[in-house]
Design brief:
The complex is a heterodimer of chains A (169) and B (403). Chain A is α/β, with parallel strands linked by helices. In chain A, 20% of the residues lie in helices and 27% in strands. Chain A has 3 helices and 7 strands, in the order αββαββββαβ. A 5-stranded mixed β-sheet of chain A has the order 1-2-5-4-3. In chain A, strands 6-7 form a two-stranded parallel sheet. The longest helix of chain A is centred in the first third of the chain and has 13 residues, at 34-46. Chain B has 403 residues and is of the alpha+beta class. Helix content of chain B is 51%, strand content 12%. Chain B contains 17 helices and 8 strands. Chain B has helices spanning 3-13, 60-64, 72-77, 84-99, 105-133, 137-158, 180-202, 206-212, 220-225, 231-234, 242-245, 266-290, 308-313, 315-326, 367-379, 384-394, 398-402; strands spanning 19-24, 36-42, 45-52, 167-168, 171-172, 334-342, 345-353, 359-365. Chain B has a 3-stranded antiparallel β-sheet with strand order 1-2-3. A 3-stranded antiparallel β-sheet of chain B has the order 6-7-8. A two-stranded antiparallel sheet of chain B has the order 4-5. In chain B, helix 5 runs antiparallel to helix 12, helix 5 runs antiparallel to helix 16 and helix 6 (137-158) runs antiparallel to helix 7 (180-202). The longest helix of chain B is centred in the N-terminal third of the chain and has 29 residues, at 105-133. Classes of the chains: A alpha/beta (169), B alpha+beta (403). Chain A binds chain B through residues 24-25, 27, 53-57, 59, 61-62, 73, 75, 79, 82, 84, 86, 105-107, 109-111, 118, 128-136, 142-143, 147, 149, and chain B through 1-3, 53-54, 57, 59, 61-63, 65-66, 97-98, 222, 224-229, 238, 240, 245-246, 334-337, 339, 346, 348, 350, 352, 360-361, 363, 365, 369-370, 372-374, 377, 402-403.
Chain lengths: 169, 403
Amino acid sequence: MPDTGLLSKIEAAFPGKILEHHSSYGYDVITLNRDDAFAIFATLRDHPDFAFSLLSDLTAIDFLGQEPRFELVYQLYSISLNHRLQVKIRVPEDAAWAHSVSSLWKGGNWLEREVWDMFGIKFADHPDLRRILMYEEFNGHPLRKDYPVNKRQPLVEERDPITNPWPKR
Amino acid sequence: MAESTWQLTEMQLDPTSEVMSLQMGPSHPATHGTIKFWLKLDGEKILNCDVEIGYLHRGFEKMCEQRTWNHVVPYTDRLNYISPLINNVGFALAAEKLLDLEVPERCQYIRMIMSEISRMTDHFTCLGMAAAEAGALSVAFYALEARETLFDIVTAVTGARLTVSYTRVGGVTQDLPEGFAERVRGAFTDIRQVMSDCDKLLSKNRIFIERMSGVGAIPADDVVSYGVTGPLLRACGVAYDVRKAQPYLFYDRMEFTVPTGTQGDNYDRFSVRFEEIRQSIRIIEQGLEQMRPGPVRVDDPRITLPQKKDVYGNIEGLMNHFKLVIEGVRIPKGDIYQAVEGANGELGFYLVSDGSGRPYRVRVRPPCFFGMAALGQMLKGCLISDIITTFGMINMIGGECDR
C-alpha cells in the first residue's frame, strides 16, 4: 500500500502527543496517552485531513504479567478519504479506565460496554455502562487471561443428568 | 443506569399509566430467540426501545485463545452461520497477512467465488424471511429454494451446508469438484428466474411497499456514527464497500457496481440486497471465466499439511503432520486488523499473535452488532409491527452478534 503521509500529518497535528507510531501490514498505528486521547480523537474525527467518521472497532488486549496490563485498540476508518488508523492506549490494572468516545461515535457506546463486560475496563462519562453479552449477576470479566476458561457460573443451577436423573414415572 | 429494573417498578407502581412497558422476546418468533426488546409504548407507538443482546454468547473469543490457528476455522463457521465461508476467508486472510504469505492464484479465485456464493445465500435468507415476516410467505419459499440450490453447491465443494470449515491458513481444504463451473452456471439460470419472480411479487406490491417504505430510516450521519456498514449503510447512499474501497483477493480485477439507495429505509435496504445478489452473480461469472487450474494451497511444510501418502509412507511426512496438528502453524509476533465485506457489512478480524502456535487474542468485528446498536434509534416513533421488518432488515445473526 502506498504511503499516504497520514502518520506525518498526525505527527504534525499533535506534536509530542504521539508516544509511538509505526506502519505495519499497510496501515498506520499510533499509541496515545490516556489523558490526551479524547481531544485527539475529536480532532481525528472532525479535521478534514483525517475525517475518521467510522469507529470500526474497539477492543482490548490483556497482557497479563506485563505493565501496563491492558491495551485498548481502536480501529478508525475514513469513508471519504479511504484510510485506516489503529490507535492504542495502554491502561494499567490498578486504574483500569479510559475516557469514553461514545459522545464522538455513537457506536462507541456498545463497544465500550463490551470492553467493560469482557475486560473490566471502565469508561469515564459513558452514559450507560452496563454489561452487554453477559448477565448482570456475572462475576468477573471472562476475556481476562486470569479468568479460567472452564469456570462455570450458571444463572440457573445446572443439573447433572447422571447423578441426578429425572424421577422415573 | 439499570433501565431494566426501572421499567419494572414503573409498571408495578402504576399499571394504568399511559406509557406501557413491554418486554418483547427473547422467546418471540421474530427475535430468533436471542434478542430482547425493552419497549416503552404509547398505544402502538414506540417511545423508547432498549435492545438487549447476549443470549447466544458462547465465548468465541475465549475459546479461540485455547486452540491452534487452524482450529479457529471451525469456530468461525459458527459466527454468521448463513454465510460461513466469508468468515473462513476473513480469518484466513488475516492470519496469512501476519505470515506475509501469498496464496496461489487459484486459491484466491476459489475463496472469492465461494465468498460471493455465501453472500448470495445470506441475502436470499434475509430477503425471503423479511418477505415472510411481512406476510408474503410464497416469496420466502422461492428464496429458500434458490438458497438451497446454492447450499447444494457449497455442500459439493466443502462437504457441509453450514459448518463448512473450508479454508486453512495457506489455502483451502480441497479443490473445486469436477463440473463446478457448469453446475454454478446452471444454478444461476434458475436463480435468475427466482429473482424475477420475487421481483414481480414484491417490487410493486402495495402491502409490501407500505410495510417497508419510510420505515426505520435514520440520517446517514447517524448510521456512520453507529458504525453500521454494509447494505444498511449503502441504503443511505454511502457507497462504502470493503471490496471496492480496500480490495482483497481479486476483487480489484472484477467488474461490479456497488448498489446504493437514497432514503435509507427498509425498502432501500431490501432493494440494495436484491441488487447485490445480481452483482455477486456477475463477480462469480467473471471469476469462473478467469480462473485457471493450479495449486490451491501454498507448498510450504511449515504451513500446510503434507500429502497423506507421505504421512503414512515416510517418517518426515509423519513428523511434519504431527508437529502441525499438535503445535499448529507458527505465526510471527504481531497484530493485524483485516476487514472483509461480509454479507451484513464490514467483517473485521483483529488477531494478536505472540509467536506461538496459538492465537493470543482473536477479536471479531461483527457487522450486525452495530446494526443492533442503532436499532433503538431506528425504531423510535415507529409502530410495534415495524420492529419485525426493521429487525429483519438488520439481518441479525445471533452467532455473530453475540459470538
